[in-house]
Amino acid sequence: MRRETWISFAFIVAGLLLVLVAWLGDEPFTITLATKVVILSLAGVGLNLALGHGGLVSLGHAAFFGLGGYAMGILASHAQNYEPLMIGSWAMEGTKSMPLIWLAAMLVAVLFALPIGVLSLRTSGVYFIMITLAFAQMIYYFAISWPAYGGEDGMSIYVRNSFPGLNTLDPIQFFVLCALILAICLILVDRLVKSRFGMALEAARQNPQRVTSLGIDTFRLQLTAFVISAAITGLAGALYADLNRFVSPSMLSWQVSGEIMIFVILGGVARFAGPLAGASVFIALEYFLGGLTEFWQFWLGLLLLVVILFARGGIIGVLAGERRHG
Amino acid sequence: MGDIVLSLDRLSKRYGALLANKDVSLDLRKGEIHALIGPNGAGKSTLVKQVAGEIRPDGGSIMFDGQPINSLNTAARARAGLGRTFQVSSLIPEFSVLQNVMLAVQAQQGKTFRLFKRFSNDTELADQASGYIDELDLQGRADVPVSQLSHGERRQLEMATALALKPRALLLDEPLAGIGPAGSQHMTRLLKKLKQQVPILLIEHDMAAVFELADRISVMVYGRIITTGTAQEIKNNQQVQEAYLGQEAS
Prior knowledge:
The complex is a heterodimer of chains A (326) and B (250).
Chain A: H1 3-24, H2 28-53, H3 61-81, E1 85-87, E2 90-92, H4 98-120, H5 125-145, E3 155-156, H6 171-193, H7 196-206, H8 208-213, H9 218-244, E4 246-247, H10 254-267, H11 274-292, H12 296-310, H13 314-320
Antiparallel strand pairs in A: 1-2, 3-4
Chain B: E1 4-15, E2 18-29, E3 33-37, H1 44-52, E4 59-64, E5 67-68, H2 74-80, E6 82-85, H3 97-109, H4 123-135, H5 151-164, E7 169-173, H6 180-194, E8 200-203, H7 207-213, E9 216-221, E10 224-229, H8 231-236, H9 238-249
Parallel strand pairs in B: 3-8, 3-9, 6-7, 7-8
Antiparallel strand pairs in B: 1-2, 1-4, 4-5, 9-10
């Protein structure tokens, strides 16, 4: 096996051991913190596909994260209030079933990502960053000014949604559920980036002119990657809202887009376990340093600066060395 | 006179006051190398870009394999069988030689949207790609990343990827530029071999190579083609000597 595979594997095992110790020692808070890491990693896995492999630097992924959160919030609030959800003249029951909510979250993310992608992919570089940011901000302000679902205050869901056969309110069970989803998405994305599609996407990032001259439509490649990426981040949003049993416009804010991007860059752009490493370090800093000083983000900024200046491959890159293809 | 694969009919392109191409007509027949020569700034690159689909002509039409291709974009023209290499070599820098050619084979098959089949284990792609790598004398270099290739090897690799698209015509933009005398000779040999398979429209500055390779030569000066003929005819053409060769000779 390659070195990077070992490091990723060791990293995941260490995380799972930590949770195991917390579970045996009856420390639900640690497990919840680990669940947060898992969910945020999932959001990063989504962005990593677009940003790392596709070279599409989206500063608007909070839109999909928040939309996933709102998909959960809206469906669950209708279920808990026993009100049908009216879409035009068509009435739909709310639901507390996680699988249905996840499906809805991904669907909503895809429906938004398609037009956003079609318009944004006409640009590149800094314009792409700005236009994805602009779309996310539009959705953010819409959520703030839409009173039906809590407006600026957001809304609470009193009981965590259900998954057949599990007690999702038990921290360890919810953790395992989230970790399984992350594992599935990691494997799917890994297969995807190593497929013919993934290689073409990678090639289009490095030299779009070349790929076009081979007769491959780079726009279709990148749009597909962008939409899949959004769906994964949307799914993470639904899980995150479920973790907190709360959704608010802050999930849609550009700071969240920035944070997801930090997970990817800190952990290692286009690395298998990059988002995991990035989100782990980020949450660890937030928790431990945040306990010591209000200014923990200063240290985060410093770390990010060091990574960008001296370690382009992020944490995984430092440990595993240069990236190879295929 | 053989079948015509590619024909340009009175192509024109204007950039503001500059008339880059004026009523350019030429054709490419099966089994031949048709070279386009001309001094710097004559409009050769503009012509190549119009044929490849990177810029739209202001007037005139391009027929490829009997079909008008004016309305096709670059990717569609490539799929239709118009292969090309670039003046500055254009490859996927982080990929190996093999991966670059595999990507071209996959593009030719049109199966890029296979989302889950592993690329690196794809023996079908790799086998075909190896064939093209051998053909361009790159055997033994298959796993070398592009960033470690010499300039001449990059040119060979570009040619291999162009061939992998199974083109029905090749558009080669200065394939001999900057590869040194030995590389030049090598590439000339390869091109001679290639033209049996696929007709080539060759844009080239290296006169010795052009006169050795080309079945026909067109000379472009100030955006117009002033004459077309065999190497011998071009060498003896008074107009050409004044406009072009004369400058270098004097």
